[in-house]
Specification:
Layout (H helix, E strand, L loop, with lengths): L1 H19 L7 H19 L3 H4 L11 H13 L3 E2 L2 E2 L1 H11 L2 H14 L9 H15 L8
Length: 146
């Protein structure tokens, strides 16, 4: 399917960036650049206005379906959403692969603190949104989002 081709493209691209960087994780700047690529992809896919999602990283979460589905799209592209469900194990794995060493422990602690949020929601867009919001609220200093 097109979505799985897109997903594998992004996984390959992110992996290539990491290998090209010659390190086992990205710097904050590399993470931001990857986020910009994911943002562009998901903006087009979901059709959300950029103004609605541009402040997510600063904690401004607009409670609307298109914003929720944008967050789910980013999580799908980074393999945190699998089979329409958030994967705690995949989230931890992505932190190990992508985050700078000085952020790993705190981001993993936030994932641990927020791992059950998604269980309250039937739809992946809502589950993704409320999980992202929990992660921000838990640790705004190390929260990064596309």
């Amino acid at each position: 399917s097109i979505i799985s081709m897109e997903k594998s493209y992004w996984v390959v691209l992110i992996t290539a960036i990491m290998i090209a960087g010659g390190c086992d994780a990205m710097t904050k700047e590399q993470l931001r650049k990857t986020g910009k690529m994911l943002r562009k992809q998901c903006l087009g896919k979901v059709g959300v206005e950029e103004e609605k999602i541009s402040q997510i990283e600063k904690g401004k979460f607009i409670e609307e379906k298109d914003v929720m589905c944008y967050i789910a799209c980013v999580y799908q592209m980074t393999q945190i959403v699998k089979n329409n469900k958030l994967s705690y194990e995949s989230a931890l794995k992505q932190v190990d692969l992508m985050y700078p060493a000085d952020m790993k422990a705190s981001v993993k602690a936030s994932i641990e603190n927020c791992k059950d949020v998604s269980k309250k929601y039937k739809y992946v867009c809502e589950a993704s949104y409320w999980t992202a919001k929990c992660l921000y609220d838990d640790n705004p200093k190390d929260f990064m989002f596309a």
